[in-house]
Design a protein that fits this description.
The protein is of the alpha/beta class. The protein contains 10 helices and 11 strands. The chain has helices spanning 3-15, 18-25, 29-43, 59-83, 99-116, 129-138, 199-210, 224-232, 242-245, 279-298, and strands at 48-51, 54-57, 92-97, 121-126, 143-147, 155-169, 190-194, 216-221, 238-241, 254-257, 264-272. The strands form 3 sheets. Strands 3, 4, 5, 6, 9, 10 and 11 form a 7-stranded mixed beta sheet that branches. The protein has a two-stranded antiparallel ribbon with strand order 1-2. Strands 7-8 form a two-stranded parallel ribbon.
Length: 300
């Protein structure tokens, strides 16, 4: 068994699909299937059970994944350390970004980083904060941007943006002319939320419950612009970060500040405490920290 075999088994166990795992590993599906069959024959045990298009992990497969992750991580750390000997002229960084953070803050930061370090490649994954946190913990991502709170025993956590949520409603909504609105006034409204793998999903539900009601969630989405369009169509109300709200067309939706204390939207950059950070990753961390400190000083 080789380290590559462990990588294939772990990825297939994670995705439960030969097609998706082959795509993630940048190999063909027949190659992956042949490798798994060969490994099963070598070990004399079944690692996966194939039920139609679904793939289930056996006890033997789960054991290999459990023991193999630390081995793969050790070889990955060694490989990165050796590549660091070339300095910052080469390298790649795997970063997870929530959609709102990417569109609001990181496009310009990434452009300036590329200008300073043209030899470094940023591999960006856009997903909900919960999914990003899991991928950073698993070592699939070097670092990620999430909505606080975070597990600071497992991750190094660096706060980068502190904003609040605002209410957005249809321009003809009963609250549209208000200078502010209390969360409890939304008890009988239809809510449009981010789906469950986004941190804001549970944050908003939790704040509503603290205000004395369980929100009536009518729709969920992974895209803030689709949420905006649903509000503009009069399908419900939504809570979005003020940075997003300030870019919305007031002809289509009306933004209303929430009465104090409001709902915080704090973004932080996280990376695993026990992982090796390449020089490229450290350069990115320092660059992001400096960039957002400048933004805060400028009031952006």
């Amino acid at each position: 068994m080789e380290v590559r075999d462990l990588q294939y088994v772990i990825e297939l166990a994670r995705l439960r699909s030969f097609t998706k795992a082959a795509e993630a590993l940048h190999i063909t599906q027949p190659t992956l299937s042949k490798m798994i069959r060969s490994l099963e024959q070598e070990l004399g045990v079944d690692l996966f059970v194939r039920i139609g298009k679904r793939v289930e992990v056996t006890d033997a497969g789960a054991l290999i994944c459990e023991q193999g992750r630390s081995i793969v991580q050790a070889f990955d750390n060694l490989d990165r350390a050796l590549k660091d000997l070339t300095g910052l002229s080469k390298g790649s960084i795997r970063i997870g970004l929530p959609p709102m953070a990417g569109s609001s803050f990181f496009a310009g930061v990434m452009s300036r980083f590329r200008d300073r370090y043209p030899g470094l490649t940023i591999l960006m994954v856009e997903d909900g904060a919960r999914k990003i946190e899991k991928e950073v913990a698993a070592g699939s991502l070097d670092m990620g941007v999430i909505v606080l709170p975070a597990n600071d025993e497992e991750f190094e956590v660096h706060s980068i943006i502190r904003r609040k949520l605002k209410l957005i409603v249809h321009p003809k909504h009963r609250l549209a002319g208000r200078k502010q609105a209390a969360l409890r006034e939304l008890e009988h409204e239809a809510f449009i939320l981010f789906r469950e793998d986004f941190a804001l999903h549970d944050i908003i539900i939790g704040e509503c419950e603290r205000a004395g009601f369980r929100p009536n969630v009518m729709y969920e989405s992974s895209q803030w612009d689709f949420i905006r369009e649903m509000v503009a169509a009069g399908l419900g109300v939504a809570l979005l970060p003020e940075t997003i709200c300030d870019s919305l067309d007031p002809a289509h939706v009306t933004q209303i500040p929430l009465a104090e204390p409001g709902i915080p939207w704090h973004l932080a950059m996280i990376w695993r405490r026990d992982s090796y950070l390449s020089h490229a990753a450290r350069a990115w961390i320092h660059f992001v920290q400096s960039s957002f400190e400048e933004m805060e000083l400028d009031g952006r």
